[in-house]
Amino acid sequence: MTATTVLTARALLLDMDGTLVNSDAVVERCWRRWAERHGLDAGEVLKVVHGRQGHASMAVLLPDRPMEQNHADNARMLAEETTDTDGVVEIPGAAAFLASLAGLPHALVTSADVALAAARMAAAGLTPPDVRITAECVGASKPDPEGFLKGAAELGVAPEDCVVFEDSGVGIAAGRAAGMRVVGVGPRARAHRPDALVRDLAQVRAAGAADGGITLHIG
To answer: What is the distance between the alpha carbons of residues 104 and 109, in angstroms, rounded to a whole number?
Structure first.
């Protein structure tokens, strides 16, 4: 972006992987092993998995497999991912961005479960928001908007007054389906035409507004 975009909101809803935390190395390791076990092309698998809960990705990739098998496989995958934090780092600017949101309404909305979210945020040296919508909180994975709608409800803010930060296609779709504006973070977001796009969070500045809202300077 060459010009600064200004957005106003009453609350921000933040994805984790690819948005606050760069976990691509471990995601690729785990899903490549999974693809090999199931005789699938790892490159094609990695096109599907970003942003979704693991069992939802498995349902896309193995559509004829019973969901109870996907849930059991996902539990094993989550345990594997939670103990593997090698290469997990913050997205540039994430720590400063989160610090700037102190006292402002914001929430984490992630497809990770509680344990994985805690492990990755800690590995990246980030303090998570007080309000966290994790996999345990929802019945449907992104691109379903449930997680973002629950985040807005927890914060007491109307969906249309929220801005979502997301990196993945399914996450951007979920934010849109919730009736929210979306700031895309990183290269994966570009193809999905978010309302604004940044390379990383170093390109975003947030400040409290006089009316109690949040002003975002993007670019």
So the answer is: 16
Residue 17 annotated as catalytic: yes
**DSSP per residue, the chain:** --S-EEEEESEEEE--BTTTEE-HHHHHHHHHHHHHHTT--HHHHHHHHTTS-HHHHHHHHSTTS-HHHHHHHHHHHHHHHHH--TT-EEPTTHHHHHHHTTTS-EEEE-SS-HHHHHHHHHHTT-PPPSEEE-GGG-SS-TTSTHHHHHHHHHHT--GGGEEEEE-SHHHHHHHHHTT-EEEEESHHHHTT--SEEESSGGGEEEEE-TTS-EEEEE-
| Helical axes 54-61 vs 42-49, angle rounded to 10° | 130
What's the pLDDT tens digit per position in 169-212? 999 999 999 999 999 999 999 999 999 999 999 999 999 998 88
15 classed as catalytic: yes
Q: pLDDT at residue 158 above 90?
A: yes
